[in-house]
Recover the amino acids of this structure.
């Protein structure tokens, strides 16, 4: 029953957020929210720009790439020399070159994949000055890129698509920083740890055992971890530990935060293009697929774990292996699906301990391209890629003009959308094939057989989708997985982002064609169904052979599919 009330409360909270945060974000990016202009103006002067100096899509893309490259270098250097920097009560040395490269690429691409234990590897300075900084700026970059596509539909005959520096400044000051601060304070009030005092040593006089507890500035990092769809935790156990996620309320707020902006951006889209119905159509695609995956995965986790049952142990409360008792099986499944169907990757349970059915839900949720609802900004612009493909296919099928919001969808737009949709499956499958073909890759999984293959496939799917969650059964801190994973994350971010920016520029330059009887409707149930079909077909055709070798074989080996 508590799971039912959790769902109801989540739906109500997200519904209100969709309407009001979505409208607020539209006002922010339209330049109608300026109560912090006294902070904006010095920033613009420092950057040598202003809201009036708009950029072409090529200049915008160059700014994204340069900013991200500098961010990678900045993060890499801090990690390498952290032993010589302040705020290092653990007296940790610098991080190795391969791991530093992997971590820098991870946090700058909004992946937050962690091949390390935070409490034993990163100093307070690294956590605050490098990793937490990226947890703010990378979702801002994703949202800014989404705004380019939105402006592409909203404008006509325009050579410019906005100003990157203005967009991320407004996103940081008006959206991410204030919301993260409020929820960080709530996490502190609930008992999440926030201190610079270093570790705590506890002596148990009953057992004569001394234990050292890792502490640090955790609570406020936790808020932006979820809000920014980052997922990278201060501690190795992530949101499964009470220091990061102390109560049922913080667990609920974690789920809410990681879904809030991706869902609300569909309302922002509708407001900015002048048709909220189109935003509702995109929201419907997200909600329908998200609901199916929550139901499927929750059902799988409410069953007995086949491996535990084979040992003669049967549970009446579902699969509790690897889960926090205070959260339970179905709430952990909801958290897991919310995390993997966004680009968050945080975890309040051990995903390696999910049932084969539950693990399949997490894995395939990422394979859809993380568009339901996806990450901050990345979910919206990737969904629009699928929507454009759906419009083109629908127009061909029924003989109507392929148009979306008055913009003709022609060869250039379809090519860019197709490239954006296929980049992720191609890189994930290629790197998975490489990992299972070389000894360095096969040495990573801790399990043999189909589950071991699932661990490799899951890791490279997670990194290629900039998700960051892991099955926790793969030894990833090796030169092979650090380098291959970093390349996987960089391609998964920028090889999609650049075509998206080109698509936004192409759409902005087009004129608006008046709607006619021959126009294919893009704000009704048929369009929603067609878009869902395109997402499922692309994901199914590209990934079904791979998942057949992993979770499906594992399920069938236990004598049942569910």
């Amino acid at each position: 029953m508590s799971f039912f009330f959790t769902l109801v409360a989540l739906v109500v909270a997200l519904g209100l957020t969709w309407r009001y945060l979505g409208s607020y974000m539209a006002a922010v990016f339209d330049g109608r929210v300026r109560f912090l202009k006294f902070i904006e103006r010095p920033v613009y002067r420092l950057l040598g720009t202003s809201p009036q100096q708009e950029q072409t899509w090529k200049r915008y893309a160059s700014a994204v790439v340069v900013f991200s490259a500098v961010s990678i270098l900045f993060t890499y250097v801090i990690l390498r020399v952290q032993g010589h920097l302040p705020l290092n009560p653990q007296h940790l040395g610098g991080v190795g070159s391969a791991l530093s490269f992997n971590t820098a690429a991870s946090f700058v691409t909004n992946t937050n994949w962690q091949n390390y234990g935070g409490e034993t590897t990163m100093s307070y300075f690294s956590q605050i000055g490098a990793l937490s900084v990226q947890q703010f700026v990378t979702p801002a970059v994703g949202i800014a890129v989404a705004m380019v596509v939105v402006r592409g539909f909203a404008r006509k005959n325009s050579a410019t698509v906005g100003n990157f520096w203005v967009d991320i400044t407004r996103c940081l000051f008006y959206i991410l920083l204030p919301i993260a601060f409020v929820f960080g304070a709530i996490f502190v009030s609930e008992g999440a740890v926030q201190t610079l005092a270093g570790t705590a040593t506890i002596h148990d006089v009953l057992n004569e055992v001394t234990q050292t507890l890792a502490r640090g500035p955790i609570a406020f990092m936790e808020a932006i971890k979820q809000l920014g769809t980052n997922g990278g935790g201060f501690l190795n156990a992530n949101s499964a530990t009470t220091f990061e996620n102390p109560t049922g309320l913080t667990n609920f707020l974690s789920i809410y935060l990681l879904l809030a902006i991706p869902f609300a951006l569909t309302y922002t889209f509708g407001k900015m293009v002048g048709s909220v119905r189109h935003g509702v159509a995109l929201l419907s695609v997200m909600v329908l697929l998200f609901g199916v995956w929550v139901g499927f995965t929750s059902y799988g986790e409410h069953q007995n774990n086949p491996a535990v049952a084979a040992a003669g142990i049967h549970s009446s409360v579902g699969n509790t292996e690897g889960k926090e008792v205070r959260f339970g099986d179905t709430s952990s499944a909801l958290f897991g699906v919310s995390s993997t169907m966004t680009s968050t990757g945080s975890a309040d349970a051990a995903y390696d301990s999910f049932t084969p059915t539950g693990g399949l839900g997490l894995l395939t949720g990422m394979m859809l391209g993380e568009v339901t609802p996806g990450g901050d900004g990345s979910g919206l612009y990737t969904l629009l890629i699928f929507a454009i493909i759906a419009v083109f296919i629908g127009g061909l099928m029924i003989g109507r003009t392929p148009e979306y919001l008055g913009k003709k969808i022609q060869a250039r737009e379809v090519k860019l959308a197709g490239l954006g949709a296929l980049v992720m499956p191609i890189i994930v499958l290629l790197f998975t094939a490489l990992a299972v073909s070389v000894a360095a890759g096969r040495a990573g999984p801790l399990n043999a057989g189909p589950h071991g293959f699932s661990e490799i496939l899951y890791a490279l799917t997670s990194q290629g989708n900039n998700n960051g969650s892991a099955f926790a059964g793969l030894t990833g801190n090796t030169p092979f997985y650090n380098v291959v994973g970093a390349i996987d994350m960089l391609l998964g971010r920028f090889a999609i982002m650049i075509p998206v920016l080109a698509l936004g520029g192409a759409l902005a330059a087009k004129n608006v064609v008046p709607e006619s009887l021959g126009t294919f409707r893009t704000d009704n149930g048929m369009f929603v169904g067609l878009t869902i079909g395109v997402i499922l077909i692309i994901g199914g055709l590209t990934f079904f052979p791979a998942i057949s070798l992993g979770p499906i074989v594992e399920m069938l080996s236990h004598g049942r599919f569910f």
In short: Residues 259 and 338 are 7 Å apart (CA to CA). The chain has a mean pLDDT of 92. Residues 2-266 form one domain.
